[in-house]
Amino acid sequence: MDIVPNTINKSEFQVSEFILMGFPGIHQWQDWLSLPMALLYLLALGANLLILITISHEPALHQPMYQFLAVLAVVDIGLATTSMPKILAILWFDAKTISLPHCFTQIYAINFFMFMESGIFLCMAVDRYIAICYPLQYPFIVTDAFVIKSTVSVVLRNGLLIIPVPILAAQRHYCSRNEIDHCLCSNLGVTSLACDNIIINKLYQLVLAWFVAGCDMILVFASYALIIHSVLRLNSAEAISKAMSTCSPHLILILFFYTAIILLSVTHLAGRKIPLIPVLLNVLHTVIPPSLNPMVYALRIQELKAGIYKVLGLGEYVSRK
């Protein structure tokens, strides 16, 4: 056990680094997970970069709906990159050690990008709500300034509210254990090693989750409930089909994202009995949404699909087909 004196802390000892052990219960064969993890990470990077390039190069996609999608692509790249390089380093090079500052930085980054994803989904839900329920006012309400203000608001909200999470974790005293049975530095996984009371850490994480993700989820589903109510009142089957086609990609990914969060919360309650499940879900939740989001949008939104074909040089082939 790596324990070194700490002259700054009033306590006698303080660990100098943490050791990320990997996936609990399967340490002997966890290396086999490296290939699918690497493929998912490369897919997340490649697909989201392609989305960004397509939206940037196609003037027809310079609209609020696609601008929010571009922001989501940036968030997805950030979310996957906060965890996957370190996980792959653990699986490939046995690079299990991580310094305390780097660990607390990872705690902040994971929470920030996770809540950013939730916030951007809310912005996209509001965008679709205004587009479908108030189509005549849409061009005057949802402007470039609206996109910028909404994005900046989400960034400031998450950036400020999450600052106490790593600060509170850094204030704990880690005097004996430094082995984390995880692939990444999760807030509760790290603070559970502390020798002093961590009740404030647990309470703040709980309040943060309910206040940020919980409020976002309620507002998102309220928006889609109003959208569905408005769509069902339309007399035109064509109008209903068009409205649902623009909303279905958002709704699919939103349902997946929040269902995964709920499952992750529930499995953490049984974490002591089956520790592998919450750890695996936690890791997958940082890489599957970033790799799944661009795939769903590219397949379900015809304008974006056409733009991607054009960027890839397949536009002439598609038009002939």
UniProtKB/TrEMBL annotation:
It is found in: Membrane. Keywords: G-protein coupled receptor, Membrane, Olfaction, Receptor, Sensory transduction, Transducer, Transmembrane, Transmembrane helix. InterPro entries: GPCR_Rhodpsn (IPR000276), GPCR_Rhodpsn_7TM (IPR017452), Olfact_rcpt (IPR000725), OR51/52/56-like (IPR050402). It holds the Pfam family 7tm_4. One of its GO terms (biological process) is cellular response to lipid. SUPFAM superfamilies: Family A G protein-coupled receptor-like (SSF81321). The chain crosses the membrane at residues 38-56, 68-93, 105-126, 207-231, 251-271. It comes from the Eukaryota. This is Olfactory receptor family 56 subfamily B member 4. It comes from Cavia porcellus.
